Amino acid sequence: MKFYGIINVKIYLESMDKAVEIMVVNREELKRLIDQIPEQDALQVYDFIGYLNMKREKDDASSLDISALSEDPDLIRQVQHSREDREQGRMYGREGGLEYLQAKVKEFENGQNI
Description:
flat
């Protein structure tokens, strides 16, 4: 049985070497193709690369270590502060937040303490 395992590993490693080799060639081909893109199409390529980066970041975010976050003292403090704000009525909707900021701007303009 171990003999088959070694063959599988060897095939797997050979496949990985081949995949890496193909990947390098594809990157070089991709660079060549990008250099040949007409200027009017460059924005679409740029947007697509941005989309791919955003997708990768989203995938990375979905694999966050929730247990580590639940033990982060800064995050816990922020959540507790947010709960206190909500309980004390310091949470504002869109209109309430705008009114609050306008009042603070007026206080600042009048030289009052913020």
